[in-house]
């Protein structure tokens, strides 16, 4: 069976107005959602010992995500504070100290090399280890979100096989230029999401466009990670791009119909 590893960031998404917290973080979300889509997954990252960390760890166990190399540390788990404004998420502060304290030894790298895909992101503080990760022979998937710069792309892209970016503030012409520039750097799959305008993709040296599925969202948190997860699932299952993009759009829409990235609300004290 194909295997995927979520590597790096995790958070408790804390909904301040409702005093509720949910497990999340890009690497965690992808490991959980790909598991739900039928892929054998694991998560490697740093989880704190406080109530939030215990909750996050329990949720991963319930989702049957493999945790054999998890790093547990004393202290407060990383978190993001969120407010919902017309069902859209607004971030209002975070602390990534615990999550960003991840370290990888040779046994971790050997473990990473046992997967087909490892997925990480711009928030995981692993830029300095990407070269070592790629040396294991694994395919590297990377989410650049919308906070990338040209310099950051130049630093990270040499190690990336599958690149995901948010281009909501880009024009369609700018998105096409970005896709082509990244593809020229040797990246196998490039996906740029553009909010309500859908997703733009270069895969198998062809261009694809995927429209969004119109819905009335409850909470948009996690929709992008669901999209990424279904695309990676399609890559592992060797689906055609037009197939996995359509399915990814469906899953992103579904993810907007519940609060949190993948559920598991817990009351904050």
Automatic annotation (TrEMBL):
Coiled coil: none
Membrane-spanning segments: none
Top-level taxon of origin: Bacteria
Keyword annotations: Kinase, Transferase
Domain Carbohydrate kinase PfkB: 20-253
One function term, GO molecular function aspect: kinase activity
Gene3D superfamilies linked: 3.40.1190.20
UniProt cross-references to PROSITE patterns, sorted A to Z: PFKB_KINASES_1
Entries under InterPro entries matching the protein: Carboh/pur_kinase_PfkB_CS, PfkB_Carbo_kinase, PfkB_dom, Ribokinase-like
Protein name: PfkB family carbohydrate kinase
Organism this protein belongs to: Filifactor villosus
């Amino acid at each position: 069976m194909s295997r995927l590893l979520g590597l790096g960031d995790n958070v408790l998404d804390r909904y301040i107005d409702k005093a509720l917290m949910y497990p999340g973080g890009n690497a965690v979300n992808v490991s959980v959602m790909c598991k739900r889509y039928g892929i054998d997954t694991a998560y490697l990252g740093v989880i704190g010992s406080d109530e939030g960390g215990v909750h996050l760890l329990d949720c991963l166990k319930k989702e049957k995500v493999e945790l054999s190399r998890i790093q547990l540390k004393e202290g407060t788990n990383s978190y993001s504070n969120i407010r919902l404004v017309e069902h859209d998420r607004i971030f209002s502060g975070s602390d990534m100290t615990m999550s960003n304290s991840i370290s990888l030894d040779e046994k971790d790298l050997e473990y990473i090399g046992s997967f087909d895909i490892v997925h990480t992101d711009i928030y995981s503080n692993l830029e300095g280890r990407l070269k070592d990760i790629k040396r294991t022979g694994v395919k590297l998937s990377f989410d650049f979100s919308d906070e990338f710069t040209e310099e950051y792309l130049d630093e990270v892209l040499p190690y990336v096989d599958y690149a995901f970016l948010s281009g909501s503030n880009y024009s369609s012409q700018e998105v096409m230029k970005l896709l082509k520039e990244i593809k020229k750097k040797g990246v196998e799959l490039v996906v740029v999401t553009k909010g309500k305008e859908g997703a733009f993709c270069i895969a198998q040296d062809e261009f694809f466009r995927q429209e969004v599925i119109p819905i009335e969202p409850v909470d948009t948190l996690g929709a992008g990670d669901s999209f990424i997860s279904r695309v990676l699932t399609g890559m592992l299952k060797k689906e055609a791009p037009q197939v996995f993009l359509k399915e990814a759009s469906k899953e992103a829409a579904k993810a907007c119909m519940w609060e949190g990235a993948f559920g598991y609300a817990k009351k904050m004290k």
